[in-house]
Amino acid sequence: MIGSWLWNAWFSLAGFSYYFFLTFLDKSPKSVLMGSVCTAVIFYLLMFGFRMVLSYFFSGEIQSVEEMDIQVGSTGMEEHSSSEELANLVKSLLHEDEHKTS
Fold it and tell me: Are residues 32 and 11 in contact, defined by beta-carbon separation less than 8 angstroms?
């Protein structure tokens, strides 16, 4: 799933604050707090659903990016092995050159 539970928490805090500041002058404190908590729960669930929808639509892209990372990692190993082979070749050429000069 895209994001974390903190996204849900921040979104529910925003919903709580929005409802609280719109109603705290007009209603009793108990009804304001109960309404704010209910709004926070609703906003939390809405964000959870939104994150699920996002993960559904972006799951293909995430998998393709992971596959690209795996392919890039494998080519990196090939480059590393070819650089080791190149280093060994240079060492052997230098070693042969030393034997020819002595």
Answer: no
Which is nearest to 74 in space by CA: 62, 88, 82? 82
Encoded tokens for 5: 């539970």
Structure tokens at 81: 């092995």
Q: pTM of this prediction? A: 0.56
**CA–CA dist 33, 31 (Å, integer):** 5
Q: What is the pLDDT of residues 39-94, one digit of tens each?
A: 999 999 999 999 999 888 887 765 665 666 666 555 555 555 688 888 888 888 88
The pair of structure tokens assigned to 98 is 């030393």
Residue 24 carries which DSSP code?
Answer: T
Tell me which amino acid residue 99 is. H
As separate numbers, helices (DSSP H) first and strands (DSSP E) second, the chain gives 2, 0
Report whether 39 contacts 14 (CB < 8 A): no
